[in-house]
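User: I'm preparing a small set of examples for a lab meeting where we compare how different chains pack in three dimensions. I only have the primary sequence for this one, and I'd like the structure in token form so I can line it up with the others. Please keep the answer compact; I'll paste it straight into my notes.
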Amino acid sequence: MHPDIKAVVEVQHIDGQLVELSKLIQSLPAEIQTLQSRLDDFIHAHEDRKKRLAANSKERKDLEVDIKSIQEKISRHKDQLYQVKTNDQYRAMLKEIEGEESNIRKIEDQILEKMIESEEIQKNVNEAAARLEGEKARVAAEIQRLEGERKKDIEEREQLQTRRKEVAATVSENVLELYERIRSYRPAPAVVEVRNGLCTACNVLLRPQVYNEIRTGNSVMTCENCSRIQYYLEPPAENQVQAGGEGTRVNMT
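Assistant: Understood. Below is the structure token output for the 253-residue chain.
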């Protein structure tokens, strides 16, 4: 294999690793934010339940005050029964007392509903309270792990960038410029293997003499169809298929 090809293949491999590392590094803050947001949502839901529990308690107390007020009213009406002078007044007073007692029963039903609701809310509050510290610890540990991974990825990226500079320095200037130019307008890879007479990027067949020249590794060749740099690796098996197609030589001078 031509030394420039060997080096530029390594540069391409490093570039691929750099792309993946950069994606990971960029995605980790979002993952951390998602974890924190979920914890915040859990805490907010827990606080909302506690507020609802407090509101439920106040509502029950207010209803109990309403019952006491009605009971006092009933007591006054009962005292007034002895003061009425006609049967119609007496029956009217009894009807009013019955209506007020009916109101008390309705309020008592509301209180019972509030008590059932309170028990359910209290259960949820207790369960959330039991989980809260564990959730905080779990999220903190996961964030610490992700931040540690991000730090390692950044360090690895810096090492790879250093290695890329070292390897790129061994590539002929025109070949490196060609590689960078192909990368700028073609999706990866910019350097592709020729296998069984085919460009593995665009599947175009090469002319036999072009294919043979790439196999010798004496010069840097590009695919006439997709313009990618081509190289050949000796397969483990013999009797490779001879193919046809077109290729373009890169001037190495």
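A couple of notes for your slides: The chain has two domains: 3-168, 173-249. The radius of gyration is 41 Å.

User: Perfect, thanks.
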